[in-house]
Amino acid sequence: MVNHRRPGRPPTGRAQSAAAISPGLLKHRIIEARSLAMHCLIARKIEADRRLLGAARRNLEKWIARYGDGVPRALGEWRGILDRPWPEIAALITGTDESAIRLRQSSPFAGVLTPAERRRVYKAFRS
Fold first, then answer.
1. CA torsion angle for 9, 12, 14, 20 (degrees, to 10)?
2. Rounded distance, CA 83 to CA 86, Å?
3. pLDDT tier, 18 (very low <50, low <70, confident <90, very high otherwise)
4. Can you give the pTM of this predicted structure?
5. Residue 117 in contact with residue 123, Cβ under 8 Å?
6. Which of 101, 91, 106 has its CA nearest to residue 32?
7. How far apart are CA 113 and CA 107, in angstroms?
8. Is 14 exposed, middle or buried (0-12, 13-18, 19+ CB in 10 A)?
9. Dihedral over Cα of 80, 29, 112, 63: its sign
10. Exposure pattern of 18-35 as b/e (b: 16+ CB <10 Å)?
11. Confidence label for 23 from pLDDT (cuts 50, 70 and 90)
12. Average pLDDT over residues 47-52
């Protein structure tokens, strides 16, 4: 018997329809995509003006100071990340792997985008 399956297709030969994705999972994916879009815009702005990276460092230090000895793991990770060279930081905040997705959930880049820029991204990802 010859296997007529095309590369990249599920073994059943049928692609998953959008209707098969639960509403909760779809909303979660939209939120992840919106976060990625915002961080791509953040990376573009910081690339043009590296001083904006200081906002993330200041945010992070304020957040860490609030926790005292009980600093969440992600904030400790961000501290190490923000000490890296900018190209490595940019690659991480715009990454699509699970680690990048997880870290964007506790992103210290608040304040880099203007309210108008944030509204524009949110409008583009309305669900």
1. -110
2. 9
3. low
4. 0.79
5. no
6. 101
7. 13
8. exposed
9. negative
10. eeeeeeeeeeeeeeeebb
11. confident
12. 96
